[in-house]
Automatic annotation (TrEMBL), chains A, B:
Gene3D superfamilies: 2.40.10.120, Acetamidase/Formamidase-like domains. It is an enzyme of class 3 (hydrolase). This is Formamidase. GO terms for molecular function: formamidase activity. The keyword Glycosyltransferase does not apply. Its EC number is 3.5.1.49. It holds the Pfam family FmdA_AmdA.
Amino acid sequence: MDFQLCNNSIFKFSSKNAPALKINSGDVVEIHTYDCFSNQLQTPEDTLDAMDWERINPATGPIYIEEAKEGDVLKVTIEEINLNNQGVMVAGEGSGILGHMLKGMESKIIPIKDNEGIFDEQLSIPLNPMIGVIGVAPSKEEINSGTPGPHGGNMDNLMITTGATIYFPVFTDGALFALGDLHAAMGDGEIGVTGIEIAGSVKVKLEVVKGLKLNNPVLENKESFTTIASEINLEEAVNQATIDMAEILKERMPMGLHKIAMLMSAVGHTEICQVVDPLKTARFVMPKWVLETYDFKF
Amino acid sequence: MDFQLCNNSIFKFSSKNAPALKINSGDVVEIHTYDCFSNQLQTPEDTLDAMDWERINPATGPIYIEEAKEGDVLKVTIEEINLNNQGVMVAGEGSGILGHMLKGMESKIIPIKDNEGIFDEQLSIPLNPMIGVIGVAPSKEEINSGTPGPHGGNMDNLMITTGATIYFPVFTDGALFALGDLHAAMGDGEIGVTGIEIAGSVKVKLEVVKGLKLNNPVLENKESFTTIASEINLEEAVNQATIDMAEILKERMPMGLHKIAMLMSAVGHTEICQVVDPLKTARFVMPKWVLETYDFKF
């Protein structure tokens, strides 16, 4: 590991944010981050009423990568995720898909022990650690860290975990990378607005890739190659992730688009990342063994 | 096996359809069915232009179950799926998510051999046999067999496969069950409008359950308990499947709805069945081992 960055919270992705750290392409950084509530809920007695709702979804950063220029791609390899020893969940009125069925807010501390989250006396949940917020600065506008987009941000995607490589389009010099909002466990959709929210640290390798064009983040892991899109509704997000995949395959597969459409329909999966943020996020997942049959390379 | 029913095609689910077979609750029926094109595409030379598009999505049935009355539930256990030795796919202009990027229609015969679909010389796709169209007659309206709904129909849900049990609300005396549209393989979303479409037969056990109320189909298999909803768009389908799950758990779990929302958010998954039929279909999947921790019984 080359660098450490500790809890330098930003609450929006913006090209105007001053770098918290400057590194070179290829450097590895260990990034420490608060939970999505800036660690304000630590005991069952911490009331939601007393919480400062301005300090939601902190991301640690931004990190300026010297070689990154507008139009490049930033390749982020997640080498390690370390979680603190307790998480927290919240559910309540107006929050998430079931928000209209709930009265008032409730929170719940979830101790982490032996790689499980202790939900209650009966149930311990095996962890699936993941990163909720991760991305780069957008080109002009400032985007709240609770919102996803082509720059990444609050995608709440289960696949953003140890071993995954994510590619982001770079919109501004230095890329201005940041991450936060770790989850100890979460289901696809994050229907109640929180996963098991938790503080911790993430070790990432950051590399600049030249000559690759992207509209939206793309993820690669051992099993699959995945496009990710965030749009005003789920319908649009699914459409965009599917179209992004078709566009990428069209350039790299030895077949016409009709056959690509059949292939995607037969073996590709449209999946839901989250449906509770200001934009919704979907992904299109192609099994890598299928792509490798055709010598696909990204 | 008690009964056989061969290719008695219906093209709409309707309480007005005359029964093709009458059985008693608990009987097992082997149902033979054409592919979604009524087997019109058999060789690479069969042109799409010559196809009768009125004969799309045949379902075999309907089967009248003597004990079934309006307000009951029909429990369908899928004991066996047998596929013919070749399937077919279609992609083209105006069809599916990529339809706007395609000019003209193309089809492709896919031989089935050794439990794989031969996509081309490079790629053989392992089969995941499933039933695209399955359901009962709706209460009043007649619903085209290409459209899903509370009665089931064209849900194109990967989970509707061997070993699964599906529960349908019964809207009319006898239930009038039918199924068709087998797929040898399909990805979630069915983004190009076809999976590997294929003819074959399905062995199902049909049982009437009294005293259980359902809004929409529910599926149970070894791993999970799943609600399924079809709505005008994916957003609404996801919302309804999630709400259906919350309503079912609320009656059967030893905890309040806030905690149920947290549990669903932490371990439940919102997933996509299909996004290309006249209504879109989503499912909410809860791991059964989690529910069993709380002695959940449906």
